[in-house]
Amino acid sequence: MSKVEEFEELRPLLFSIAYRILGSVSEAEDAVQETWLRFDASPTRPTSTKAFLSTTITRLSIDVLRSARVRREEYVGPWFPEPLLTDPYQDPVRSVELADSVSMAALLLLERLSPLERAVFLLREVFAFDFEDIAAAVDRSEAACRQLLVRARRHMHDGRPRFEADRQERQELADRFFDALRTGDIGGLRTLLSADVQLVGDGGGKAPNFARTIHGADNVSRLLGSVFPSLLALGITCEPRDINGQPGAIYRDRDGRVLQAIALDVLDGHVQTIRAVLNPDKLAHLGPVADAWAVTREAQRIRRGGHTS
User: Fold this and answer.
1) At 173, is the secondary structure helix, strand, or coil?
2) Which of 157, 176, 199 is where one domain is finished?
3) Which of 11, 33, 199, 270 is the most buried (most CB within 10 A)?
4) Is 227 part of a structural domain of the chain?
5) What is the mean predicted confidence (pLDDT) over 11-18?
6) What one-character-per-residue DSSP string does 202-257 give?
7) What is Dmax (Cα atoms) for the chain?
């Protein structure tokens, strides 16, 4: 097998490791490309290509995460991961761990961990690496890695996300939710939301966003029921998609450009959390991005009784 063939066989795994460490599609893709360059430039073939590539991608991702954390401290408003539509790495034996670990809720929970704790936790708990390979990947002893894992588990335990177990039920509820958004059915929305639902947006200061997190079924249903019909009157379309393994949708303007991605956490038959990613920098990998400010101005004119331009 050639170097290219070996690398391409492992590319899905490498991307999945990098994305879970970084929470960024674009940064994960850059890390995968740099991993290939280092593998291609290596004068000798490693004994284990998987171990070599996994170590390289992990170390690169840890370095990027350390610098990214400084930027995130200055981030305007809530920070969310970049939306992921499809996880390229599939393993039937690890399907539950893989699905849960890529959700928005899980990735946000991982932000509690140090870069080393995060890498060790993911390699062990999600990808089932043995401690010898983990130690090589993070350049620590096996004993140190076991200690890092204990600390990581402790941080993750209490906040571990829970989701509706039945995938079909989740999807049916999401379909009803987005139908109610389309029609502005405030009463219908309210019945689908948990009493303590949260609506949170990530605009990063680069797109219109809520001034704060919106709490409670009444407040969230009124806001969504008043805003979305005016958006749809502008030709905005809703494209139901899984977002990070959970029910969601991509909203596009009349020209097909991406306006926002919405991800839902569903539990006990209700929507628990609604996360809207509006920062254009986090949507660019999904296609051309809409001018959210212009769309918002047009929608406001409609709500005031004006006309579209």
Assistant:
1) helix
2) 157
3) 199
4) yes
5) 98
6) E-TTSS---SS-EESHHHHHHHHHHHHHHHHTTT-EEEEEEETTEEEEEEE-TTS-
7) 70
Show the CA angle centred on residue 12, arms to residues 9 and 14, nearest 5°.
100
| pTM strictly above 0.90 | yes
Residue 250's φ and ψ, nearest 5 degrees, are -105, 130
Element holding 270 (H helix, E strand):
strand 270-277
Entry field: residues in the chain? 309
Lowest mean pLDDT among 35-39, 169-173, 208-212, 285-289: 208-212
Residue 248 bridge partners (DSSP) = 241, 263
Task: Kindly state whether residues 46 and 151 are assigned to the same domain.
Answer: yes
Q: pLDDT band for position 305 (50/70/90)? A: confident
> Which of 135, 157, 179 is the last residue before a domain boundary?
157
User: What mean pLDDT value characterizes the chain?
Assistant: 93
Domain that holds residue 29: 3-157
- Residue 1 confidence class, pLDDT cut points 50, 70, 90: confident
SS3 state of residue 75 = coil
Q: CA 170, CA 172: separation in Å to the nearest integer?
A: 6
pLDDT tens string 167-196: 899 999 999 999 999 999 999 999 999 999
Q: Which alpha helices (DSSP H) does 74-193 contain, by range?
A: 95-101, 104-110, 115-121, 131-138, 142-157, 167-183, 186-192
Would residue 308 count as lying in a domain? Answer: no
